[in-house]
Amino acid sequence: MSNYGGAITTDPSDLTRQNLNLFSLIIVSGNNVSYNKTFGEEDFDPKRYVDLSLKSNLSKTQKTFDGLPRSGENGTVSVEDLKVFIATYFDDAGDDLVYYDPEDFFPEPQGFLPKVKNPEVRSWALEVHALWKNLSRKVSDGVLEHSELHTMLPLPEAVVVPGSRFREVYYWDSYWVIRGLLASKMYTTAKAIVTNLIFLVDTYGYALNGARAYYTNRSQPPLLSAMVYEIYNRTCDVELVRKALPALLEEHAFWNSEIHKVTIQDAQGSNHNLSRYYAMWNKPRPESSTIDKESASKFSGNSKKQQFYREVASAAESGWDFSTRWMRNTSEFSTLSTTSILPVDLNVYILKMEQNIAFFANVLGHKSTMESFLEAAEARKNAINSVFWNDEMGQWLDYRPTNGPICKESETWQACNQNQNAYASNFIPLWIDLFRSDAALVENVMGSLQSSGLVHAAGIATSLINSGQQWDFPNGWAPLQHMIVEGLLRSGVKEARSLAEDIAVRWIKTNYIGYKKTGAMHEKYDVQKCGAFGGGGEYIPQTGFGWSNGVVLTFLEEFGWPEDRSIGC
Length: 569
Ligand SMILES: OC[C@H]1O[C@H](O[C@H]2O[C@H](CO)[C@@H](O)[C@H](O)[C@H]2O)[C@H](O)[C@@H](O)[C@@H]1O
What we know:
The chain has helices spanning 12-17, 22-28, 35-38, 46-51, 58-66, 79-89, 119-135, 141-145, 173-183, 187-204, 224-235, 238-255, 289-296, 302-317, 344-363, 367-387, 433-436, 439-450, 478-490, 494-518, 546-559, and strands at residues 53-54, 70-71, 76-77, 90-91, 97-99, 136-139, 159-160, 261-265, 271-275, 389-390, 395-396, 411-412, 455-456, 459-460, 475-476, 525-526. It contains 21 helices and 16 strands. Helix content is 45%, strand content 7%. The strands form 7 sheets. A 3-stranded antiparallel β-sheet has the order 5-6-7. Strands 9-8-12 form a 3-stranded mixed β-sheet. A two-stranded antiparallel sheet has the order 1-4. The chain is globular. By secondary structure, the protein is mostly helical. The structure holds the ligand OC[C@H]1O[C@H](O[C@H]2O[C@H](CO)[C@@H](O)[C@H](O)[C@H]2O)[C@H](O)[C@@H](O)[C@@H]1O. Ligand LLGJG24Q binds at residues 47, 162, 166, 170, 172-173, 209-210, 285, 287-288, 316, 319, 321, 539.
C-alpha cells in the first residue's frame, strides 16, 4: 500500500517494480529518443508505448536497447532500428487484455427500456446495449502470471473499458458504465467492476485513475460509493455493501489526508475543511511524457518544472484534463495551478461518499459509523455553502485561495477568490439531494443555468471558453449532462423536470445522429451542432465509448422515447 502522506511516493525505480515497462523508463528518464519528432506516424500517441508489454525480462531488453547504434550529438536511435527493436522485444498495446463474453449479456434483456416505444430509437438502443460486448475484457493470463512484464495491473475480475486508446479500466468512467449496465440488466458485470475497484483500494489505499502502473500516483473523481449505492438500489445485495464499506472508509481517509485537506476560515470566523486534487507525482506523466516535457520547457529550473508536472498530474486526477478551470490565466496553459484550487465537484463527490457511507453503515447496523458520517456530511454541506455558494449568481463557484499555493495554515475566505467563469461543474451540487431539497434554491439555480450561456442546441457546454483544451467549450461530456439532468429531475420542481428532459432529449439526439453518421459512439460531443463529436486536447477524438453509452441508456430508461417523437435534429 502506498504512503500518500508524503510528497512523492513513486519514483521511476519504484515504477519499474510496479511493472512500468521499458518504454516508460525511456520516456521518463528523457533518454535521447525523440519520438514525437522523428518516430511514428502523424497520429503518434505516446500512450501506446507505455501500453506495450515486454516479451521477456527488462534487463535483457534494456541491454539490447543500450546497445542500439546511435548517431548525432544526442545519440539518437534511428526510426528503423527502433521499429525493429519494438517488434522484437514487445507485444502490441492491448494484447494484455483479452475479449470476454459477459455471461449476463442478452441481446434483448427482459424489461429493457420499457418506455422506449419508437422502433428506430429502440433498435439503436439495442445496438448501444450490444456495445457492452465489444468493450468487455479480462486481463490475460500473461498479466496474472508475469505482471512485471506489463503496465496493465492484474485485476481479478472482468472489466469494461471506455474504448479506443483507453484500453484499461478508468475510475470515474466506471460510474456511468455501471449506470448503463444497470439499464442493460447486467448486474454481474456491474458488480465485477466494483470488485476490481475495491481491489485497487485494498492494494494502493485509493482507487487509481486507471488500472495501469503509470496511474499509481493519483486517483480520479471519487465515485466508488455512488457505484455501490446504485447497484445496491437495484439488487439489494448486502454482501456487496459489506465488502465495499472498509474500502470506502479507506478512500474517505485518502481524500481527507494531509495532502488533500485544506482549511478555510469563513467571513464569520468558522473553519471549514474541504478537499483538493493533489497528485503524488512531479514528473511528466509517462503516458503523455513528450507532451508534458514540451509544455514544461517554458520553465527554467528543476523545481518550477516539478511543480508544473504536479499541477498537470493533479488536473488528470480531476478527470478534467485539461481545462481553463485549472489555469490562473485562461489563455496560458503554463499557469495551471490545480493544487491551489478548491473544486466544487470534488467536494460534492466526497459529500456524496459521506452520505453513502452513513447509509451503508446503517444497512449493516454500524450505528456509530453512521452517526459520524452523517456529521461529516453535514459539515461538508456547510463548507460547500460557505465557501462555494454565490448568491448573486445562483451557482457554486470553485475557490482559489489568495496566496496561490495552498498553505498549511487556514486561509480566510474572500468573495473575490471565487472563480466567476461559467463551468458545468458550478451546477454539480444539484446532483446531491441535500442541495436540491429546497425548491426556491432549485428555481434560482435553474434560472442561472438557463442564462449562463452553457445550454446549447446539442447539450450543456463544459465552459464558455474556447481554449482548445478538451474540458472547455464547445465540448459537452456525458457525465456532466447526466449529473445536471439527474439533479434537476429529482428536485421535484416541475419546470426543472422539463428542463432536464429537454437537455436529455438534445443529448440523445446528438448521440444518435453522430452514431448514424460515423457508426460509433463518441467520447465527447460538440454541443453547438447536433451530431458533431468533440475535439481539442492532447489526443485524437476517441470512440467506443463507455460513459457515453451508459448515459444514453440511462436517459432512455428514465425518459423513454414516445412512438411519435422524431429522433432527427
Ligand atoms: O492520456 C491522457 C489522459 O487521458 C485520460 O483522461 C481522459 O480520458 C479518461 C478516460 O475516458 C477520462 O476519465 C478523463 O476524464 C479524460 O480526460 C486519463 O484519465 C488521464 O489521466 C491521462 O493523462
